[in-house]
Amino acid sequence: MTRTAIVTGAARGIGAATAKRLASDGHAVAVLDLDEASCADTVAAIEDAGGRAIAVGADVADAAAVQSAVDRIAAELGAPTILVNNAGIIRDNLLFKMTEDDWDAVLTVHLRGAFLMCRAVQKHQVDAGWGRVVNLSSTSALGNRGQANYAAAKAGMQGFTKTLALELGRYGVTANAIAPGFIVTDMTRATAERIGVGFDDFVAHAAKEIPVGRAGEPDDIAAAASFFCSEEAGFISGQVLYVAGGPRA
Ligand code: NAP
């Protein structure tokens, strides 16, 4: 069945791969990112493959922008019942060097952003009696040196997801979290730059620690998101799936 999906942070990386995958699953997709123009490549790729998509510019942490984006998506693509909260940033630093701005920026985009998006979309899901929410957590939720802000946000995403599952289950809405390990995107490229390591060496070093012997790709996460958003996943809710090439807990 064709649904309308929103993927946040979908201009590039994991979000772009997920938007393309949900479009190939047959859904109309709102490709949402901070800057509408930056969504053009993802939208063009979906349309070239025969899918339906629109570009939407919004800051997920801005309540008014989120509400008007969701209203526009409902009007142009139909009521959104699939939501992938993927938009994210990093501001890594050891605790003693971490600024309040570093802390607030990361908590705001990940947690406030996911909250505002879910609050605006749930009305359409409840009205439809069907919905899927997928929230991007991270293996960093288990703790990661230099990422006190990000680890707190990504652990928060897991508690938020489980609460959504409890509150929205009776309306046919499932909520699950995906916790990726090392995925090759601009985000990991930025980390390599910050610590002064070439990206190829950084990826190769990461791959050595991963049981399946390679780094993850955005499509690895898109495949998991596609499954959680499928009709047949309706009895799976409140779960955290580590997609990391090996076990995590
Ligand atoms: P990415 O390549 O940096 O892409 C993130 C996207 O989110 C960018 O297009 C960015 O836009 C957008 N964004 C940032 N702030 C936003 C806001 N306030 N409103 C709307 N859009 C915003 O990151 P990625 O690696 O694909 O990561 C995607 C998600 O997976 C994130 O939640 C990340 O924490 C999570 N994750 C990634 C990894 C990994 O190894 N890559 C591992 C675990 C979890 P701009 O370009 O304009 O800033």
What can you tell me about this protein's structure?
The chain is of the alpha/beta class and 249 residues long. The protein has a single domain (4-243), classed as 3-Layer(aba) Sandwich (Rossmann fold). It contains eight helices and seven strands, in the order E-H-E-H-E-H-E-H-E-H-E-H-H-H-E. A seven-stranded parallel beta sheet has the order 3-2-1-4-5-6-7, sandwiched between helices. Strand 1, helix 1 and strand 2 form a beta-alpha-beta unit. The longest helix is centred in the middle third of the chain and has 29 residues, at 100-128. Bound molecules: NADP nicotinamide-adenine-dinucleotide phosphate. NADP nicotinamide-adenine-dinucleotide phosphate binds at residues 8-9, 11-15, 33-35, 38, 59-61, 86-89, 109, 113, 136, 138, 180, 182-183, 185-188.
